[in-house]
Specification:
Layout lengths: L1 H5 L5 E3 L5 E3 L5 H23 L10 H8 L15
Antiparallel strand pairs: 1-2
Length: 83
Amino acid sequence: MNELEEDEGHFAILKANGGSTVWRRKGLLALANTALILKEGARMQFLPECLGGSKLFGPGVMEQQWKMSRLWQDSENVPFAAE
């Protein structure tokens, strides 16, 4: 609970008994959207477990996916703030 007082960005607590508490300061609709996103995220993690669990990607798969999205940049061409 001390963390909640220090950082107002926290919006949920996961309890030791498996439960959770979620709140928002932006109104009921924002709370409902947040709860729905958390529920759907939990479901997306649960479903693969029923089918044998998640599997690691093979070598180069993530790079290929990023290149297909046209968001990939080679590390040599990425500008850094220190430069």
